[in-house]
Amino acid sequence: MRGYLLLTEARSGSNWLGSLINSSRNMGQSSEWLSPKIHRLDMNSLSWDEFFAEVIRKSSTENGNFGLKIFPNHLFITREFYGIDFIQYCLSMHDVTLVFLRREDTLRQAISYARARQTRSFAAHIEGRAEPQYDFEEIARCFFYIRDSYCFWQSYLELTGTKSTEFVYEDLVQDPSPFVSCVAEHLQVASQGKLRTSMAVQRDALTDEWIARFNEDRGSAALLDAYDRREHIPGKIKNFFKLATRSLEPRYPFAF
User: Fold this and answer.
1) Of 52, 94, 140, 241, which sits with the fewest C-beta atoms within 10 Å of its C-beta?
2) Domains (ranges, CATH) in the chain?
3) Is the pTM of this model over 0.70?
4) pLDDT digits (tens, 9 = 90+) for 224-252
């Protein structure tokens, strides 16, 4: 089978680009298929072979092509359960191309991520559950997290010696066809003449307002607090026991 893996991080434009790919109906069904919230599979009851087969099935179109996007968090979640690097295994089993997508304007991406985390609205058509509130530390935390993610992907690709094609979101805003053509060429399907999507850009005046406030605050704020992502441990008796016996396991990398 032929497929593509889109390596990126949240709020990079991957939903929009994935919707363009999906509209072709012959280039896979892009989504965050390694996320438990998306694949809805009982990983405790599935063997690795069963899990892998289900992910490929869910991400495939009828012609056998598949595609999914992966955040570093997804890669480590899967490794937590199965002890296997999904990307390297996928490369060994199928004819796969890797595409690395990043965004130049990290601050706008961080603000978008912070707002989405607050409202739980990760797309324009999803109604928010709460009104977004400016939070310097949360935006800075998202900024650090995004930069760490991009650094991880660049280092991972270099250390594994895996070839990839890199795209920058801002370069694709006016014309996403280079991205679509790259995927179509590998999957050996005709590139779509007219690209269609129902997704809208989640950008408004509030973003510019928060950028101004953030730039005013960052000179005097405690940035180290924002970078410290250690998990708050609830004050339960069993957790105090685990701390005392040093048996409380740390969270896996990129567990945000």
Assistant:
1) 241
2) 2-245 (3.40.50.300)
3) yes
4) 888 876 655 555 556 555 556 666 566 77
